[in-house]
Automatic annotation (TrEMBL):
Membrane-topology annotation of the record: Single-pass membrane protein
Homology family: Belongs to the cytochrome P450 family.
Residues bound to heme: 451
UniProt KW Transmembrane helix keyword: yes
Protein name as it appears in the record: Cytochrome P450
GO cellular component: membrane
């Protein structure tokens, strides 16, 4: 009998606690109604989450909460809220939410997903040192050369190859002449496996129900998939850095033109510390992955927008013709004279951001924020008239870039692609609206997690946007019966990072002279390419010879 009373009390306590799980705690900002235990998990979108998050933002405001079982997520769809919480208080919002799968695969060495740990700080510092504006400027010749190759072989897949090749050259001093180059295909294979493991639903909710971590591997296919991906990544990252069987020619070129990761790897290898050697290999691998798909998704969205919005294409053509004319390709210096092209670049980031929800952050400490009572379009101001909310420690924070970029309160007709809006106000907002909480590089993230590849990416984006528009007409393709195949500007890949699904397009040089210039520039770029070409397979060599035999 004596034991029954504490047992009953314990059960009652447990029952009361369980009933509270999933309930929105006092002090949290509002959000969709919750159900016991799950909170909002039963309505949490597993794909294209930015659409649902935006719908909720229009209903609950730019600062609302979701309950994920016992955990909390905050969704920010308000530029002032982002500036205050993510930029100004970035010391507290720098963490990433726990992700057991990423731990299993990368062991805390994936700089993008790593928690706020000593590992992340080392990786981040190294990435910064490698990707400074000055270092990015040093890599401009190969970026410009790759732009000529992109023009030379404008294929769908090639936008991906171009950015992969740029980053391979920048980091390791070795380019990828074609899509089938072994390093390139190996990277895309490893990345595909990685995406499968990260896909919502591919693993049970281990981060919410931690006991699932202890299921033995033989009963958990997801754990075997993680082990396979871990091996695939480590083998690949190690091979790219190690250059087994490297010839004297290769060694010489790498020493002269090799990238900074390559140099760091040499120094860190000298330390004979396996952990450091692995860390630098991981950083190289993750930067290549992070830098390949993002820039190419941007370029694919550009082409899609040019096809769908012919009036914009016409204006972009006119500006380039007026400023540089027919007779030469464009370099980075030309951009400052072309406001419409600059506006087009900004508008692509807004229209179809590569990372519509950025990458989720998490809080290291509780944060108090004040929001106007109406919460219709909150801006975070610390003032007594405002209602105060508490974001708990460990909360996940989603920055809903899509919702901000498509907010009708900020932009006129936000669903259309309209670069002109940037010609009237600095951040493209409609007249009379204060857009000062936005910034031109908003699509690259926030606070201390802002994209470290931003300078390299912006150089690639600028050079390629100008030259693609200078060189080509982009139009809808036609079917066998001659009917136009309309492109769908909403047909995008699922995932944290997104880009258009393959689409049909007709891309033709604007004039015969331009086609000749592209041909000539491509042949002249051979000198630059050759500095980054070594250890090629016989097929690669044959491809290189054939493609330059004109
Ligand atoms: C169109 C091009 C690109 C866009 C739009 C883009 C965007 C982003 C965004 C939104 C984030 C998340 C920031 C946050 O959590 O607040 C990010 C992180 C990151 N990006 Fe980029 N990125 C691009 C190109 C690149 C390139 C070229 C590289 C490598 C050279 C790169 C490397 C990274 C890395 C390593 C992170 C993780 C940073 C961290 O968590 O500390 N990105 N990027």
């Amino acid at each position: 009998m004596a034991i029954l009373i504490p047992l009953a009390l314990g059960l009652l306590g447990g029952f009361i606690w369980l009933r509270k799980v999933g309930t929105r705690e006092p002090g949290l900002p509002p959000g969709p109604p919750t159900v016991p235990l799950l909170g909002n998990l039963h309505i949490f979108p597993t794909e294209f989450a930015h659409y649902k998050f935006t719908e909720w933002a229009r209903q609950y405001g730019g600062f609302y909460s979701l309950k994920m079982g016992p955990g909390t997520a905050i969704v920010l769809t308000d530029a002032a809220a982002v500036k205050e919480l993510m930029d100004k208080r970035s010391g507290s919002t720098v963490d990433r939410p726990p992700m057991h799968v990423a731990e299993l695969v990368a062991g805390g060495l994936n700089v993008v997903l790593a928690r706020y740990t000593e590992n992340w700080r080392t990786l981040r510092r190294t990435a910064h040192a490698i990707l400074t504006p000055q270092a990015s400027a040093r890599h401009l010749p190969i970026q410009q050369a790759e732009a000529t190759q992109l023009l030379h072989v404008v294929l769908y897949a090639h936008t991906t190859l171009s950015s992969n090749s740029v980053i391979l050259s920048d980091l390791y001093g070795k380019r990828a002449p074609r899509y089938e180059t072994p390093e390139t295909t190996a990277f895309f294979k490893a990345q595909h496996e990685w995406e499968l493991v990260l896909k919502p639903g591919a693993t049970p909710p281990v981060d919410l129900i931690p006991i699932l971590k202890y299921v033995p591997e033989r009963w958990a296919k997801w754990k075997r998939d993680c082990t396979k991906t871990r091996k695939l990544q480590r083998d690949l990252y190690w091979i790219v850095g190690r250059n087994e069987g490297e010839t004297n020619e290769g060694r010489g070129k790498r020493q002269l033109y090799g990238g900074d990761i390559d140099k760091a790897a040499r120094v860190w290898d000298g330390s004979r510390n396996h952990w450091l050697m692995l860390t630098v290999r991981y950083l190289g691998g993750v930067l290549i992955e992070g830098g390949s798909d993002t820039t190419s998704s941007y370029l694919q969205s550009l082409i899609l927008a040019m096809i769908a919005y012919t009036d914009t294409q016409k204006k972009a053509h006119e500006e380039i013709d007026r400023v540089v004319g027919e007779h030469r390709m464009l370099t980075l210096d030309d951009l400052e004279h072309m406001p419409y092209i600059r506006a087009t670049i900004l508008e692509i980031h807004n229209f179809r951001p590569v990372a519509p929800l950025m990458i989720a952050h998490a809080t290291l400490a509780p944060e108090e924020v004040c929001v106007p009572w109406s919460n219709e379009h909150p801006s975070l101001i610390l003032h007594s008239k405002y209602k105060s909310y508490i974001i708990p420690e460990g909360a996940t924070i989603f920055v809903n870039a899509w919702g901000i970029f498509h907010d009708p309160a900020l932009y006129d007709d936000p669903e259309s692609f309209n670069p002109d809006r940037y010609l009237f106000t600095e951040n493209g907002t409609k007249p009379g609206v204060d857009g000062s909480d936005l910034r031109a590089n908003f699509a690259f993230g926030v606070g201390r997690r802002i994209c470290p590849g931003i300078h390299l990416a912006q150089n690639s984006i600028n050079i390629n946007t100008m030259n693609l528009v200078w060189a080509f007409n982009f139009t809808t393709d036609t079917d066998a019966g001659g009917n136009p195949i309309e492109s769908d500007t909403f047909d995008y890949q699922k995932g944290i990072l997104t880009g258009p699904k393959p689409f049909r397009a007709k891309i033709t040089p604007r004039t015969a002279e331009k086609a000749e210039i592209i041909e000539r520039e491509f042949l002249e770029a051979a000198d630059t390419f050759s500095k980054f070409e070594f250890g090629l397979s016989p097929e690669e060599k044959e491809f290189v010879v054939q493609s330059r035999a004109h």
